[in-house]
Amino acid sequence: MLLMFIILSYDPTTLVYPPFGHTMGYHSATPFEVRLLLGSRLSFISPYGISAVKLKSEDIPGIDDDDELTVYCCNTGCHQIVYNKSLLDVGIYGKFGRGVGEFWSPTGIAASPDGWVWVADAGNHRVVKLLNTGDILLWVQSIGSFGCAELEFDSPYDVACDFENNIYVTDEGNGRVQIIDSSGSLVRMIDGLYRPKGIAVIAGGSPWNYRGNDFVVVLCEDGIKKFSMDGKLLGERRGEDFGLERYRFAFCMIDYYGHIWVTDRENGCIHKFDKDLKYITSFGRRGSRDKEFMDPRGITIWRRFGQVFVVDATVIDYYWIGIDGYIKGCFPPIFSSDKPGTDIVFFITEPAIMDAKIYDSKGEMVREFLNNYEETPFEHYLIWDGRSNRGEVVPPGDYKIEFVLTPTYSSKDKFKKILDTQVMVE
């Protein structure tokens, strides 16, 4: 009975499922759904990297479809790239091999609104550049071969791109990141890394960049590292720093606020940090139910609307960034009329629009603190002096403190998080 209660009560909301009207009820691309839609034409075998983008060629002024994205995924075990041409049409590009139009265990992928697609073709020790014409993917060029010199690779794992179409490639076997411009020339390297894997970048001039953040995040086997755009180490975190004994970081992404999201294959979850690598929260747990992960790998975020896609073993999950939190308590939880007041301590996981109200035992509001107040993640304090909106000390009784949290992304019109607790006045 207790186990059933735990299962039913589990519902984290840092990420939420999109509403039915947006997805017709589908928030996961499972093997069953793929077979139902495409028959035997496609099988997901060990998918890894994923990238989502709004193509400029499909961004037509006056048409309300800005949240309809093109999503690319490395179907690694089949040596191919899978992408959606429309809601019900899927494109497949590539096969096993070493030549043009062929891949060998591609792991990472990045895409730009201009239609460019870059693939970390790990088994072939190269990066492949493709072009989405709006209908099909075309091979443009390959960069690199096996080796340790400039523009050579040893099992490139992941690739990220900035708004100028520079690419950032984790060269896992050589322990470095190579930054390459749009013409295929080397810009710089970040070396001395221990088996770098996932990479994400946010550049100062990028659209949908709240504070003009400008940095690179690299996941290595010895932790998460943040670099300036010119390769200076700005900070690093190991799993042990936030309570993990074991971890296996895989892929990462940076959202509109500069928050950093990291998939953890060992613990079956996604960790979230602020732009300074301060730990905020973790989303998900090991399992196969809703909001659980068996083996989370690639992650991508379309920053404008907070749309999130996560690759999990043989499934691709689709979320919107929501909001979660909890009230730690009231200190003191009981106060008297001659010594009125309490400190309310709460924690939230996302920037939020917040309303805070206090109700008496009859459900009537006696005090309104905040109305459409913008709050940031982490722990906060709210002091109630024990008085009503009229400035009078409230009479003895039980009072409910209620916070209503509204996300700042697309989910704001569809989802609110309500936190509440009780305080007693003697």
Automatic annotation (TrEMBL):
Keywords: Repeat
Any one GO MF annotation of this record: zinc ion binding
UniProt key word Zinc: no
PROSITE patterns assigned to the protein according to its UniProt record, in alphabetical order: NHL (PS51125)
InterPro entries for the chain: 6-blade_b-propeller_TolB-like, NHL_repeat, TRIM-NHL_E3_ligases
CDD domains xref list: NHL
UniProt KW Cytoplasm keyword: no
Stretches forming NHL repeats: 90-133, 140-183, 258-276
Protein name: FlgD Ig-like domain-containing protein
Organism, scientific name: candidate division WOR-3 bacterium JGI_Cruoil_03_44_89
